Structure formats: structure tokens, C-alpha cells
What does this fold into?
Amino acid sequence: MLRIEHLHKSYGQRIVLHDLNLFVSNEQIYGLLGPNGAGKTTTINILCHLLRADSGTICIDNSPVSEKTKRLIGVAPQETLLYRYLTCEENLRFFASLYGLQGALQTQRVQACLDAVGLSDRAKSVAETLSGGMQRRLSMAIALVHQPKLLILDEPTAGLDVEARFELWHLIRQLQKEGITILLTTHLLDEAERLCDRIGILKNGHILVEGSLAELRQQIPAQEILLIQTAQEEQAIARAQELQFVHRRYGTDLGFWLVKPMELKEIIDLFDGIPLDTIARQPVRLEHIYLEVMQRSQSSP
It folds into this structure.
């Protein structure tokens, strides 16, 4: 569905995209992760033909990016750009008209999109009266009104409460089941972990690693992460080094990579003589992988 090859973009001396390569298959959810300034927004703007790349190629549904491919793309931006004083239906009708949808076809698409995002009962509600989660759903409906093949979701659940976030996740999965290909950017790593078939980690305009979550887990040769808190951190690190455990810091926790799962008693015995305030075991998660990839990128030449 989407193929990006050797994409470059600079603003003067500042390189924003550097040999970016990315492939998204049909009906796949692809998560594009990276820190602010990594090049995500620039990539989206080039995809939408709002910005011209210096070099490289982008094809959407086997067609080079152009004015014509704009109709193949739907975008739900991070900021919900709704007309606040129009109803849900009026917002959808306005954006449908921009794509040339009129008459019975427009009415059919508006109703279908309201149904798809669960807002049929709020069709006559003014947009500014909707909750944050409902406004995000309306934004998705607008992105879908012209039946795009590729849906771009930019930070779709940023700022939402847990319940609204879960509702949006369910909607995104439903859209995938209906045959929509989705490119998703997010800073919420648990969101990417739950939703995405493949994930690319972007930094300085270049994909550092990409793959399924199972493939990305190979970045950390461990079956579990042991997290501890202790007042004697130096002693704990020294003991871990004796045991040949790789150690990392995760916030206030010391983390140790375990090549095989260990029982709690066994762990306590290994750190005998070192008071452990807290002990927790976790599977290798995307947050651990992301931090490791970013750390390696800083140390590489």
C-alpha cells in the first residue's frame, strides 16, 4: 500500500529526512515512533503532497505521490481541526463536499462514517459539545468520508483519558478489519505495542530498526527484565556484573536483563546481603526496546 524509498529532505543545512525507507502492506497497522523532531511530521506532509522531498520516491497503492493520490489518503491530525459550531453531520457534509461528494452519495457516506465511529446518535450535536474522545472519533470519520485506502493517524489518543483511549483503540482495530491500511504515529509505546503489526523507530530522519514486536524483541537478548529499587545501587550493580547480568536504568528502577525467567526466591538469594526495597519482573516490552535502540544510536559513530 505504501512504499517510501531513499527519501531525503533538508531545510538549508538542517537534514530532516536522511535515506528514509519504509513499507506498509495492505490492511496493516504500521507504527512510526520517534522523538520530537525525528521527521514524522515532515514525512506525513510529503505523503500528503503538501511538501516536496529533495529526492527519493513515495508510492501509494502503486501510484507516485501527486495531487491525484491525495484522494487515497485520509488524515486525522493530532489537533482536532473541527468546525466547533457545526454539528457532526454538518462537519462531515462540508468535508465530503470538498471531495466532490454530493446528493445521495454524500448522505450515504456521512451516515456510514457516523455509524463507523459510533456517533450516529450525536449527528445533530454541535462539535464543541462533544467530549474529547468523541471529537477524535469525529475527526476519524472526516478522514474516512471519501473512502481512502490509507488512513494516517497522528497521535490519535494524545490527551485522552483511559476509557476514551480504549474506545479509540477498538475503533482503530475495527477499521483495520474493514480493510483500511493505517499509518500511526504515537508517543504512547503501549499503544503501539497493542495496535501495530509492524513498528519503525525513527531518529534524525532515518529508521533505526523496524519489524514486528517479536522481531524487535531480538534487540534485547533477554526473556525478562528484573526491576529493583535499593539504597545500595552500586553494590547491586556490582553483584549483577558478577552474575553477568546486563544492567540498565529505567526511571527510578535498576533493570537487569535475565536470559531466563527466575523465581523470586532465587533472585533474592542472588542479591543476598543487599537490601531490596522493591522487586518486579516484566517481559521485554516496547519501552525497553525503544530506550535501548535510542541509547545505541547515541553511542554509535
About this structure: The two ends are 34 Å apart (CA to CA). The chain has a mean pLDDT of 93. Residues 2-217 form a domain with the Rossmann fold fold (CATH 3.40.50.300). The first strand starts at residue 2 and ends at 11.
